[in-house]
Design a protein that fits this description.
This protein is α/β, with parallel strands linked by helices and about 450 residues long. Helix content is about 45%, strand content about 10%.
């Protein structure tokens, strides 16, 4: 009897428990929360902490995940719907409520950044073919990024440049592009411009007008040699402030021996003027700027300024286009960035005693052999470097066939004015060769393993 009573009591208690459970709101009348709400909640979670969920392509093995996602979902409709909700919650770059056809998850692909190309311009007329090719060669030997050459040449040279550049090895030609342009002047008398100072030298003044699709550019004279990567001077564009649009080096370091400070009959920049043999330019800024001058009270665009400025000062200028640039930046000093003398190292920096401290400390970055010193024996140190780069076979070992020959030949120049401190010429060459070796051999070797 007692056992029977206990069984009845247990049954009554179980019945009461079931009644409380169903009437307590946990029954199936309201149904489960909608599946779309589950996906929406998961998508809102990343917004609370300020981020976005990682892309499917960011996960290891994401290709396998994408393949599995493409398979049709199996099972009951409710379970398949839950899977869809979870997948949408995990997707990156896709809103929670957006749906692809067939409920397929598409892996997010990243766009590769376009490779940066540096732009290098040169103007060549007359007997400047070999000198210009040697300059272009030096730029390629030490630089890391691709280069676009903009070559302005008169008719006899244009076809010769095309022929010679096409003869360079494929391993070299893959690292540059080139365009060859005729000599042209958009304002004034073309023949008068062409005869200003040296043949075609004034062409550089018109680069912002002609190269309308180029944002930034490095212009160099034909008698320039790169002794370190062009990438390094290209980086100086990022050092420009909001008003600067061009960069040059001073014409002299010592005002007492400077040409402009002693002889100029026209306005010039700063204390010693600037040398235009190496000129870094933000062409976009140049095209947008109105330049102050002594011509009119208001400003003039670059193109509108050139011809009237030349007409006013043509009887007072000696160095042609360089003098015009000095006049322009005399009235617009805030527009010019000055880089140190090792980026435009000339015989003047050593023939009157060493007066380029930057080169003494860091070595020459860009060698400028003006006064024809590559082709005579007045400054053998300059000629040694030029001859070595000109004669170097592209695919030879740079240390064995370039650096060591220069080093040995410098022994014959130590008693000359500019050869007394050979480390000034050699420091950056050696450093650049090691940098190129590390970048192109060591790192690429690791990639291919």
């Amino acid at each position: 009897m007692r056992i029977h009573c206990k069984v009845v009591a247990i049954a009554v208690c179980f019945g009461l428990f079931l009644l409380l459970y169903f009437f307590g709101g946990h029954g199936g009348a309201d149904g489960p929360p909608p599946l779309r709400q589950v996906g929406g909640d998961r998508d809102r979670e990343p917004e609370e902490d300020g981020g976005s969920p990682p892309a499917l392509s960011d996960y290891p093995g994401s290709d396998n995940v994408a393949k599995l996602a493409r398979k049709p979902s199996a099972g009951l409709g409710e379970r398949a719907g839950r899977r869809e909700g979870k997948a949408v919650g995990r997707g990156a770059g896709v809103k929670a409520r957006s749906k692809f056809p067939g409920n397929v998850i598409r892996p997010v692909t990243r766009r590769r950044r376009a490779e940066e190309v540096m732009h290098l311009a040169v103007v060549a007329c007359g007997a400047r073919l070999e000198e210009t090719l040697t300059m272009l060669k030096s730029a390629l030997l030490f630089s890391l990024k691709k280069i676009k050459f903009h070559i302005f040449a008169d008719d006899p040279l244009a076809s010769q440049f095309e022929e010679r550049l096409n003869q360079w090895p494929h391993s070299v030609s893959a690292r540059f592009q080139h365009s060859i342009y005729p000599i042209s002047f958009s304002v004034g008398d073309a023949q008068e411009w062409k005869k200003l100072f040296k043949p075609c030298a004034a062409q550089r003044l018109f680069l912002p007008v002609i190269l309308k699709d180029v944002d930034s550019l490095l212009y160099v004279d034909t008698d320039v040699l790169f002794l370190r990567p062009m990438d390094d001077i290209w980086m100086l564009l990022k050092s420009f402030n909001g008003t600067q649009l061009a960069a040059m080096a001073p014409e002299h370091e010592v005002p007492k021996i400077g040409w402009y400070s002693r002889f100029a009959r026209h306005p010039f920049y700063g204390v010693t003027g600037v040398n235009s043999g190496v000129m870094l330019m933000n062409l976009t800024r140049i095209r947008r700027t109105l330049f102050k001058s002594s011509l009119i009270p208001g400003g003039l665009s670059w193109e509108d300024l050139l011809h009237p400025l030349y007409q006013k000062y043509k009887n007072h200028i000696t160095w042609g286009d360089q003098d015009l640039l000095n006049i322009i930046f005399h009235y617009n000093p805030e527009s010019l960035f000055i880089f140190p003398c090792q980026w435009n190292y000339r015989p003047d920096h050593c023939m009157y005693g060493s007066n380029c401290k930057g080169a003494e400390e860091d070595g020459v970055s860009i060698l400028h052999g003006n006064r024809g010193v590559y082709h005579d024996d007045k400054q053998p140190a300059f000629k040694v470097v030029y001859d070595a780069i000109r004669d170097f076979p592209f695919e030879d070992n740079m240390f064995q066939s370039l650096f060591y020959p220069i080093q040995n030949k410098f022994l014959d120049t130590v008693n000359t004015l500019c050869g007394r401190i050979p480390q000034v010429f050699l420091k950056q060459i050696e450093k650049a060769m090691r940098k190129v070796f590390e970048e192109k051999v060591v790192r690429h070797g690791k990639v291919h393993k």
